[in-house]
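lol so apparently i was supposed to do this last week
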Amino acid sequence: RAEDGAELPPAERGVRVPPGVTVFDAASWNGIAIDSTCGGHGTCHKCKVRISPQADVPVTRHDRRTFTDAQLGDGWRLGCLVNATRDLAVEVPPLTTRPKAATVGIGRQVILRPALQKRYVELAEATLSDQRTDLVRLTDAIDDLELKADVHVLRRLSSVLRQSDFKVTAVIVDEDLIDVEPGDTTGARYAIAFDLGTTTVVGTLLDVGTGTPVAVTSMLNAQQPFGGDVITRISATMMDDQALGRLQQAAAATLAQLAAQVCREGGVDPQHVYEVAVAGNATMTALALGIDPEPLGVAPFVMSAAQPPSVLASEIGLSLHPRARAFFFPALGAYVGGDIVAGMLATGMDRDKRTRLFIDVGTNCEIVLSDGEKILSTAAPAGPAFEGGAIRCGMRAADGAIEVIKVDATASGDAPAVTLGVIGDVEPKGLCGSGLVDAVAELVRVGMLDATGRLVTEEAAKEVAPALADRLAMVGEERVFVLHRPTPDAEPAECVYLSQRDVRELQFAKAAISTGWSLLLEELGLEHRDVQQVLLAGSFGSYLSPASAVRIGLVPKLPVLRIVAAGNVAGEGAKMALLSVRERAGALALLEEVTYVELSDRPDFNEAFVDQLSFKA
Ligand code: FES
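anyway here it is w/ FE2/S2 (inorganic) cluster bound
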């Protein structure tokens, strides 16, 4: 109700969900809470929703027990017993109890329902008249779950019960009883979300009871010495029998070091970490699991399995609780991996009615397009330009890298013609990916680069951009544009510059990417202007200037406000999988929902690629 007591219309929201999920789960995935104490198991009879009577949803015996005939006729049902197999209008009454929720990813409200649960129970001691087994005594006390216990628990159960006066905490992952701890340890429920990147690996320690991140840390992937990208690491395993084992060990060492560090920083005993989720591309996932990645590197690019089986965390080198589990995100294809599935989860690509484009810019660029009904994905080999590779003065985004460039073609007097933003505010040493995109976009804008990507001559520069003409120089046979002179009389070769060949490298990279999304748009019969939001994901995409990305044609020609830096969405997706079993199921459902489009197969690919090379307005 409004402050004056007037009744407000209920908020209306259209959401999209995988077909066949229950209305209860569908609501939960979209951050809409429905009353429940049984978590959707059909036993609490609290998840009352009203479904438009025209939908004529079948009545179950549980519905009959809960509602009057008049209510049933009016559309009232238990939400966890209705499957959303077609469009339904559902009215959700206000909550009588508040659920716990956390905001994760791009504004996603995740209602906490972690696979990891702890239950404190005080059991009656066994007597001659009550000779139930120890396990039955425990499972009787937790009768809303169908607990399964393995031999590791049975080995400890009797002694833990007796040493702690039958006051214990059951540790449950999914419905598996993985441990019984003396006393009440329900406050210590932790899990670690890993974003297992080819370059950088990030670990986040989460309190799954509250959804709060306790500590976050990152480090370079220790597989770096085997090569900077997935292809060189796959090649390493093809040339050397020992390399797979060594790459697996390097992944394990990286994950273990991060896990130890976040536990130390968060003041958490590693024994209280019971689950991890890993979001990585198909190659990183294969290497972490010790699976031969060779088929991923050669046509027809086949994965050993889309969904890796759950393993014990100790099998991937982690020293956490000995029965801790590791969940790996499934992959849609050899080059649209678990990191992208996690990113789709974090950005709600499958739960939004808008037309949205997701681009993870990198050496391999993954692209996902959803029109609110269908979801398509593809991969575009963009090459190393965005990571600073193959660029004369290229470098990673580290201290000394120029990341922002602004150009004033008519500057005079003391006004600078070129303004640089440098990481760490130190002397510029090179150009990182976002700086490269900015440099090219700015030079296209002021006419120093023509539509074909050619740097203009000095004479032409004096016409179009007089303040910049003296920055044109030759390094060897190549025309360059000087961005930074370390000293006034430095030779061009000693400067930080953008070369003609660098521009070509960027043109090829951007053409690969824009061919990818333009062919996906064509598949769905859409134009640039139909795209309501572009999400730039990944560590590089997030730092890209939207205006520059539009100017060089890396993204569709759209108002910059429609272009959003999405950040580390893979890591956010990994957190979501730990905080909610429904989100995890949502990730698995993407395997069915998303159609992978192979670009290299298409007869129109070359023509589209050539068309995308230019910087036309
Ligand atoms: Fe408990 Fe539906 S959620 S009966």
